[in-house]
Amino acid sequence: MPINPADAQDVYRDAGDNIMFTTYLIDRDHLDSDRDALAEFADRLAAIERSMAIRYPDAQLRVAFGIGATAWQLLFPTANRPKELVDFQEVQGPKYTAPATPGDLFLHVRAKEMAVVYEVLDQAREFLRDWTTVVDETPGFRYFEGRAIIGFIDGTENPAGPDATQYALIGDEDPEFSNGSYAFAQKYEHNMDAWNALKTEDQEKSIGRHKFSDRELEDDEKLPNAHNIASQDNEDDIEHKIVRMNVPYAQPGHGIVGTYFIGYARHFTVTQRMLNNMFSQSDRLLDFSTPITGSAFFIPSRRLLERIAAGDYFPEA
User: Fold this and answer.
1) Interatomic CA distance for residues 88 and 102, integer angstroms
2) With a cut of 70, which residues of the chain have pLDDT below it?
3) How far, in Å, CA of 247 to CA of 263, rounded?
4) Whole-model pTM?
5) What is the pLDDT of residue 1?
């Protein structure tokens, strides 16, 4: 079955200007009613998106909705599971650890206008509030020139255009779940005082790129654990990629500044190897960035969401 981008949720387009990430836990004591509520939400979500696209066509609304491995097993105990859907397990390196945090359902909503993001999530809440609990809700924004909050251009090595779908969307290797995607969500908090105290040249060696021109440094100019070295996956001497978005968030009055990382991948194993490399090699950026969440989700195709709405994946009564 060939990849069909029209069947996919919004997992390979830009990060947006105004963003909200929301992670939920489901009510584990009333799974039958949870299934009914999920079916209704899966049906209504598509309608909400269509309505907003008509009402605010210039807002460029993008939505991705995902389900974690534990929730999949609880909600669909007799159904097949996407081949690479697993609960994220913490990654321990010699200096730093990527924690694993709970997450059953996930929404990534972005648009040109924050009012549109709010409207989508406010309507979604009507169908989620009685059977889920929000465990993390993080608003993000587009920084100057689309730079990461640490001042460097973001997404230079991201697959772009039609190429992005080949890295973000599941293909015929798992045909039942084709056009879906594996999402990894991880929130970092930065020590901006320490980062900003570095000379620009030292920041560039840490990232592996020039700060203003965005040109890549020569290999001998980079630190051995520069971010664009440590975060790569070169399994079998091939550079494997995912579609990644680094979204700034902040509470300036509290001195809290961070990055919400969201990575969409055709193969979660690629994301996993990238994380293993980052933490085993003590990526230089981790000296200034503390990971505080980490959860994995499967993002169903639109066709599969329709099947969930129809109850096809629920156990027979």
Assistant:
1) 9
2) 1, 317
3) 11
4) 0.96
5) 63
Q: How far apart are CA 16 and CA 188, in angstroms?
A: 19
Give me the sign of the Cα torsion angle 92, 97, 102, 103. negative
Question: What pLDDT score does 156 carry?
Answer: 77
Active-site residue (options: 154, 174, 233, 283) = 154
Per-residue confidence (pLDDT) for residue 13, from 0 to 100? 81
Burial track 171-192 (b if 16+ CB lie within 10 A, e otherwise): beebeebbbbbbbbbbbbebeb
Identify which of 189, 187, 268 has the alpha carbon closest to the alpha carbon of residue 23. 187
If you compute the radius of gyration of the chain from its CA atoms, what whole number of angstroms results? 19
Q: Is 154 a residue of the active site?
A: yes
β-partners of residue 257 are 250
298 alpha carbon, distance to own chain's centre:
10
Backbone φ, ψ for residue 299 (5° rounding) = -100, 105
Cα angle, residue 95 at apex, residues 185 and 228 outer, rounded to 5°: 55
Q: Give residue 115's pLDDT.
A: 97
What is the Cα–Cα distance from 99 to 186, expressed in whole angstroms? Answer: 9
